[in-house]
Amino acid sequence: MSRGRRQFIKKICAGTAGVALGGLTINAIPAGAFAFPRYGRARGDSPVFPFTGYAGRYNIGDYIPKDQGGKFIQMTLLGTEDDAGIVEAIRGGVLSRVYGEPVEWQRYERSEIEKSVWLNRFYFLPSFARMYHLTGDRSYLDDMMRIIRTWITDNPRMPDSHRTTYNWRDMQVAWRSIHFSWCYYLGDKGLTSEEKQLIVDSLREHAHILLTGFGQAKLNEFNHQSHGGLAMIYLGVLFPMLDDSTELLRRGMIILNHHLANAFYPDGGNVEQMFGYYPFQSHLFRDAFLLCTANGIEPPVNSLPMLRRMAHYLASVERPDGTVPQVNDSYEMPVRPILDTINDIPGAEAVSGPQGSVLFPDTQVAVMRRGGEEGWYLLANPASVIGAHAHAGRLGFELWNGGMPLLIESGCCNYDDPALVSWYRTTRAHNSVVIDGMTEAATSSQLLWVPRRETPNRITEWNPNNELPSLTMVSPPGETTNAGVRWSRKITLVNRRMAIISDSFTAEGEHNYELLLHFPPSDVNVSTAGKEIIVNKVSGTGTPVASPAANVTSSPAGTGAVSPAGAVATYPTGSGAGSPAGIPPVAPATIHAIAPDSKGSFTVSTGLVSVRAVSTEAPMASFSFRAAGNTYSHLLVIAADERNGIPGVSTRTRKGVTAITVRDTGGTVTRIRISGDSVTLT
Questions:
Q1: What is the 3-state secondary structure (H, E, C) of 489-540?
Q2: Is pLDDT at 386 greater than 80 in this prediction?
Q3: Please, which contacts does 82-86 make with residues 24 or more away whose CB atoms are closer than 8 Å?
Q4: More reliable by pLDDT, 384 or 211
Q5: Measured by CB atoms within 10 angstroms of the end CB, which terminus of the chain is less buried, N or C?
Q6: What is the pTM of this model?
Q7: How far apart are CA 216 and CA 229, in angstroms?
Q8: What pLDDT band is residue 539 in, cutting at 50, 70 and 90?
Q9: pLDDT higher than threshold 80 for residue 4
């Protein structure tokens, strides 16, 4: 642990009676470490549910972001996060079609776990309560209670069930406790006393599991335990009639205090290296703060400073389309609902975002912007951690232009999908480099969750304010798959339309290098010489719009077909899980390879990317060459101008110095000089 991190933890844990001591069980912490009034003394005996106003503004799934696994299943089964659409799908019989009639709550427990936990966490249930809250239509509560009664009847809590019964374990209990709480309070005016008592009696069972499961576990820094802590606070605050309400609150507070100190780096990033998890991790501490302050209880220690860090982090990494980067086990989760609701909190210091160019040195993530909304968005992730949820995408990045994606990380898929192991977590699924064919899987066929390992991959240079903004990432020769080669990657934003990706390899002997590039579903072509990639603009309906390009052979990835020069070929979308209802627009561009080995060339093949939580076929390109000793390779990326199309490019290399001339059809000329990885304008 770094000195800076130790100091941060010491500071944030001041006055918390040692709750940040990792490895301790909660039972080992003295009962007097946290002492609370039995319930909400400042506001009498009536609990305050502080989320009612948000229920009028947001769909449940926007206000309470799901974990990645839950979101993937939700989109696969229901195809929507809209509460009205969710209710319609459930009323249409989707549960019976997928889980049987009557519903078999444990049907997929041993085969497709994510389907099982999605059902038993009841992600969809508060949608019925919200629809009642908005309309006053009692039929929504009737349907909701019918589902609750059936589940309670079919799933009695058995002795030691937190160890033996999957439905009564881990986050199933935590999420269900939170969702039952929302059902209870949003349905408050319409539920009968008998219906309310039924929910309370079930939550009493849930409280027992929370206390014997999460409440006796070793303290760690991972999101499952955070969920358990929040669920305890939900029940401890909102249901004072539970015998264990005080103990639930105490233990929940211990967990969340520990996680505030240990689950995040000092710069605000989460230790699991998960952009897709960040919205729901943020909601945990937002909800805990709101629940406590609304009910006269001191919130978790340093909640406001951490919520400010969270808001700043989200606003900084937010992509032009309002989502988080789909790096590691992530896909495009929306940023705005969670960011806006954090900014609603007095003292959280509103962050309007995007925040310009920002380096997060502890998380080892950087975002660089240039040219405003019409220019570049660059996300750099050197993969300082690999394993668990973190992929083997060394020195990876995302690159957007004009608000549209161009080069993207592949994201993730349903955790039960074999492609998670065979593709998404591997080196080949990322904008990385394969040296001598050596790749890493970041998982295994035997273990879905391999231990995390720290890597020496780092962002070593950060120059956002130069005439030519740039950053440099380095993967040293001792890294697992580097074959003894020191690999450095510098990305330079030349202007609003041009960027250069410079890869430097310091090596002995000869090596094979394969530079990998991943695109959204789009029309990607290779020039006849094999030195250029042409990315044609694709509309949101999947219809390609040809960009002017000469001497180009269209070869749809994965088909092996070659069509006449200049032809347009629509890239096929969709894989086993189906395809999204229309693919997002893609930034039209050309990518020019400038390598020392004239024999190097591009090839295009088929990969997978996550699009709206659907695993979807998409083109990937590789530029391959062999070189001896120290060598450089450069990729010149030029975003097409809507008015002037794709410019012409000429290059000349002499004595290790490459001169590049870019001339667009409007007559504008840009001259670039590259020496080593140094980029200058001439």
A1: EEEEECCCCEEEEEEEEECCCEEEEEEEEECCCCEEEEECCCCEEEEEEECC
A2: no
A3: 83/59, 83/127, 83/130, 83/131, 84/131, 86/61, 86/124, 86/127
A4: 211
A5: N
A6: 0.86
A7: 12
A8: very low
A9: no
